[in-house]
Amino acid sequence: MRAAVLHEIGQDKLEVLDDVEATGFGPGRVRIRVRATGLCHSDLSAMSGVLPQPGPFVPGHEGAGEILEVGEGVSRVKPGDRVVVCWLPACGACPACRRGQTELCLAGFMNAGTPNFRRPGGDVFGFAGTGTFAEEVVVDAGCAVPIPDDVPFDVAALIGCGVTTGLGAALNTADLQAGSSVAVIGCGGVGISAIQGARLKGAAEIVAVDPVASRREAALRFGATRAVSPDELPDAKQQVTGGEGFDYVFEVVGKSATARTAYENTRRGGTLVIVGAGAMDDFLRLNMFELFFDEKRILPSLYGGGDVLRSYERAIALWRAGRIDLEGLITHRVPLTEINEALDQMRTGTALRTCIEI
Fold first, then answer.
1. Does residue 10 come out as left (phi exceeding 0), alpha (psi in the -120 to 50 range) or beta?
2. What is the tens place of the pLDDT at every residue in 249-299?
3. Nearest to 352 by CA among 203, 163, 83
4. Is 0.85 surpassed by the pTM of this model?
5. Cβ contacts of residue 165 below 8 Å, gap of 6+?
6. Positive or negative, the Cα torsion across 54, 55, 60, 66?
């Protein structure tokens, strides 16, 4: 079986090998033939060591495909079913799940410590317990979420992470009010999805902030009312809000420097939503007086901040109704053998989302 493997954390290229075996099949597990997977910035962060991930590993967590085989006790899906891979499945029994905060369930994170693959040289992990840069993957049955037949695999793959994360940040975490002013810092696939969510909620002004001109242009097509470079954000703040600051600011980069910028551009009493996944040693500095005096809400948003299965269903319904554009997020397509080209497209910002066709 072919898969793209990172041999050591810190390497910037993957090696596509044909001696990889998907392992761990058994009771409660399913084997999936991956048909399409998106490249998410979190994959790059895991490769560089920003996000913790044991190696060697197969990146990829934003995938879709069809069920090849189901283990004993699996009744929710059957061979031939089309599914999206959910890297953060809810167990349904832990305290977070019982409180209705299924996005905080740790069951999926526990899977990340168990190897998903094997090579002649030893075990290989799958990123976030999945590893969709492979022709096949074996995961817990809860990670395989059925999708309707009319949803293409590439669209379903995006729903598996980036779209759910960005839309959910606006619809679930922020629950922003109609007529509000919004700034989105970082306009890749997740940021564009947050922009679409803000548009759905009726934001009056949506300012897209990104250093890459092509991404700013894309943001305008997806619903931003204006798009600026980071250096132009102070002028946009003045023009849109009279200098007061935005009602909602979404940080979709995952760095303390941009989070601090986001905080400073949020109005007093406004809401800062942290969407980007950052490093454990990158600290956001806030003083105690400004926290007290400005009364700004700081809301982290993990995987869209809501029930994942419901979020998938909502995204599909909105896509079917033409209320959100998912096909337009896919700006590049490459086969698995050209995965390193996709990595370059992500690093340079030339792609919103690259679909790896497997």
1. left
2. 999 999 999 999 999 999 999 999 999 999 999 999 999 999 999 999 999
3. 163
4. yes
5. 190, 193, 275, 301, 303, 304
6. negative
